[in-house]
Amino acid sequence: MDLALVSRAFDTLRLQPPPKLTLLEAQTLSSAHVPPFPPDMPVLLTGVDSRELALHLKDVLLAYYPDSHEAMFVNGNGTRNTVISELDSFSNYSTTTCLYLPSLGEGTSFESFAEIVAHLRAPDGCPWDKEQIHATLRTHLLEEAYETLSAMDENDAAGMSEEFGDLLLQILLNSQIAREEKEFVITDVIKHIYDKIVRRHPHVFGDVKLDGVKGVLQNWEKLKEEERKKLALSNAEGKKENMGLLDGVPAALPALTQAQEYQDRAARVGFDWPEIEGVLDKVREEIEEIKAAQNLDEVTAELGDLFFVLVNLARWRKVDAESALRKTNLKFKKRFAYVEQGAKKQERNLSDLTLEEMDALWDEGKKMGL
Q: Which residues are CB-contacts of 79 (< 8 A; sequence separation ≥ 6)?
């Protein structure tokens, strides 16, 4: 890094070097997909020597910054103010060209968010947050996960942005508690999933050749099977624990999601119907067995079997069973609300309507797209 070049850049900008600054050679971002620095700090990129590099920098920076974010080119001829969306419109690229980006603003980096979460747990933090442990946050994690799913089901972009943040808070809060208990720290969490992603994608980060999505999923299961074997051999007591293919599926998952995950994993190793007709035949078979059931226990068992095979049908049709049922639940809720409103408009109690009258209102709501 040419420090004299950096000094000249700030002299040209007529700025004092800020107390916090990310300083990078632009070429180090040539293979990046996202900025490798926190956007709440100002950035100086040196050596923007071509339009091609500037175009790539624009794509990388737009992963974090809005297209209207201010930017300044600096070289021997002075400065030029621009915005990120127009980085490739400069005309004097050279090895001495620098690009200065002001901070995106307070609270826009992962590190700043981790800091305020740690502050919540500090002696001068929040009394409620300081009292929490992993067990007390379990319900909140589950609630936030379901609220996130709801925003996803409604394709609510603003809602998803908010709910993903709430979900991230739960991860960081639990990680902060773990740090205080000397269990692990957030970098352990990140490093673990980083290594796992690299390890399980040898077709992306290595030289393994795989045939399409099916090949990727089959190889994924082989890699996880090897990981389970290694875990069994390295447990504290030195015993060979036999972890099965399905043992890694969380017991707390919703039943439809759990069933689909079981079936997905079994299918990846070849335990599956050869054609979808076999699944459809099984649906018909289970319906007949429900008709033949003689008591509550039998009906319960046969309905469970039917639910399971319907999930399998959803899997074959590449439908997420849990999401499909949630959408139908939401549709039912909206249409039934329309029936309730119809009763109110008639100044009648819902229970006073006949089934035929409720069906008529239901059909009206359906025609309205509810």
A: 12, 13, 72, 73
CA angle, 223 then 224 then 228, to 5°: 120
| Residue 210 per-residue DSSP state | -
Show the CA angle centred on residue 280, arms to residues 279 and 281, nearest 5°: 90
pLDDT single digits (tens) 341-363: 999 999 999 999 999 999 999 99
SS3 63: coil
> Do the first three CATH levels of 110-199 and 255-318 match, i.e. the same topology?
yes
3-state DSSP assignment of residue 303? helix
Q: Which long-range contacts (CB under 8 A, 24 or more apart) does 10-15 make?
A: 10/44, 12/74, 12/75, 12/78, 12/79, 13/72, 13/74, 13/79, 13/100
DSSP string, 132-201: --HHHHHHHHHHHHHHHHHHHHTT-HHHHHHHHHHHHHHHHHHHHHHHHTTS--HHHHHHHHHHHHHHT-
Distance CA 84, CA 70 (A): 7
CATH of 255-318, one of 3.40.50.300, 1.10.10.1100, 3.40.50.970, 1.10.287.1080: 1.10.287.1080
CATH top class, domain 110-199: mainly alpha
Q: Which pTM does this prediction carry?
A: 0.69
Q: DSSP string of 81-147?
A: EEEGGGGGG-S---TT-EEEE----TT-SHHHHHHHHHHHHSTTS-HHHHH--HHHHHHHHHHHHHH
pLDDT in tens, 235-285: 644 444 566 788 888 887 889 999 999 999 899 888 999 999 999 999 999
* Domain boundaries of the chain, sorted by first residue: 3-101, 110-199, 208-244, 255-318, 322-367
Answer whether 356's CB lies under 8 Å from 294's CB.
no
In CATH, the number for domain 3-101 is 3.30.950.10
Tokens of 65: 């910054």
- Spatial distance between the Cα atoms of 246 and 258, rounded to a whole number of angstroms: 10
Q: Which helix (H) or strand (E) holds 264?
A: helix 255-268
